[in-house]
Fold this sequence. Notes:
Layout: H1 24-32, H2 44-47, H3 50-54, H4 59-67, H5 74-78, H6 86-90, H7 97-109
Helix pairs in contact: 1-7
The structure holds iron/sulfur cluster (SF4) (2 copies).
Residues 39-45, 60, 91-93, 95, 97 line the site of one iron/sulfur cluster.
Amino acid sequence: MRNIKFGYGISKPRAIDIDSNDLRKSNEILREMPELQTCIGCGSCTASCTAGNLTQFNFRRVHTLVRRGEYMGAYEEMNKCMLCGKCRLVCPRGINTRGLAMLIKRKLGDF
Length: 111
Ligand code: SF4
Ligand code: SF4
């Protein structure tokens, strides 16, 4: 069969192989804050975030990656959080997101 070049290729799959991630810290966080499992990823925490208005900080992105066991840069990102608590007021799941911010910092601080 002739190898025709169309000028584009098929994208690599964006599947996440969660089993290859180190989930220890993620499991510890979920043990201390099981309600995080009810997060629907709506992004209200990010949309209302004080730090997100001033920087590129995206709280939903950080806590989603942390839950997946992808911790690279998460601690440094969390240092942008001012712990103002606005995100907690808007979370439709009633998750204590301010507490979550503190928990992530505490757990990843010694990583
Ligand atoms: S506002 Fe609550 S439910 Fe929505 S993404 Fe943030 S933590 Fe999850
Ligand atoms: S507590 Fe942190 S993550 Fe939540 S709105 Fe304030 S700055 Fe953003």
